[in-house]
Design goal:
CATH superfamily of the largest domain: 5'-nuclease
Radius of gyration: 23 Å
Structural class: alpha/beta
Largest sheet: 6 strands, parallel
Mean pLDDT: 85
Number of helices: 11
Helix content: 25-40%
Order of helices and strands: HEHEHHEHEHEHEHEHHEEH
Number of strands: 9
Shape: globular
Strand content: 15-25%
Length: 255
């Protein structure tokens, strides 16, 4: 699929908190950022210790600008302040309208709120430890899972782990509530699945069908008995609340 002109025009900044992120996250973060537009700013912030070794290698390979920050006093994190200032400056200078913050530090929740108040879109890419305060301050949260460590060369291989059982396919009631609310504004009581997905992510930035054991939102909606899911002309999907048996009986009686 070719990106739309709007996507090509969107200027994205990827700002990395190197003191609160693993270097292995960077490749995933860039793949996430690429779907929103053209990445025009790539910066990694941290102290001399944080930016040394593996971070230095990764930042060079991925063409990031390393932003070295010295601590002027013990216990003071100047890197967080530098990242926040660069983000606000890039927004005011109109160098970026979408921001991907790579961090799991809840201190950046305030920055997320301030950027969004000024009209920017903010995505956070972090680990499972990312606090709810930071997840909910973003437009969308993307969780990165670190790769499993391989055993050292020459080590006795550990017994193979049994395959993990498949995740149970859950059906959260919040999805039905969302359809009831959003579809109430449409004349036919239906809502497109894409619009529903956008609404669910706005209410819960970390929402993902995979969390509930489904491959996608359409697959997830197919498991609900209370929903009427159908594919419309043109290939897109729409969904509505299924009529209750009493309502269906009454409709049949009047025909």
């Amino acid at each position: 699929m070719q990106p739309s002109s709007a996507e090509l025009d969107t200027k994205v900044a990827v700002l990395v908190d190197c003191e609160n992120a693993d270097p292995d996250i960077l490749d995933y973060a860039l793949r996430v950022a690429a779907q929103f537009g053209r990445v025009v700013l790539r910066r990694g912030f941290g102290s001399h210790t944080a930016l040394a070794n593996k971070w230095q290698t990764v930042l060079v390979q991925q063409a990031f600008t390393p932003c070295l920050q010295y601590a002027y006093a013990a216990g003071k994190n100047t890197s967080d302040i530098a990242l926040a200032m660069d983000a606000i400056e890039a927004l005011f200078d109109q160098r970026a309208t979408t921001f991907c913050l790579v961090t799991s530090d809840s201190d950046f929740a305030g920055l997320c709120r301030k950027l969004r108040e000024r009209g920017a879109t903010v995505h956070v890419i972090g680990e499972a430890k990312t606090p709810e305060a930071l997840r909910n301050a973003s437009d969308q949260f993307f969780q990165w899972m670190p790769p499993e460590a391989s055993p050292p060369t020459g080590a006795t291989p550990l017994p193979a782990k049994p395959p993990a059982p498949p995740k149970p396919k859950l059906r959260p009631k919040s999805v039905v509530s969302a359809i009831k609310l959003v579809a109430a504004e449409s004349p036919d009581g239906r809502v497109s699945v894409s619009a529903l997905g956008s609404y669910l992510r706005r209410t819960d930035p970390s929402f993902s069908p995979q969390t509930y054991g489904h491959s996608g939102l359409v697959s997830m909606l197919k498991t609900y008995d209370l929903l009427d899911l159908r594919q419309e002309t043109g290939g897109h999907w729409s969904v509505a609340l299924a009529p209750s048996p009493d309502a269906a009986s009454a409709a049949s009686a009047t025909e």
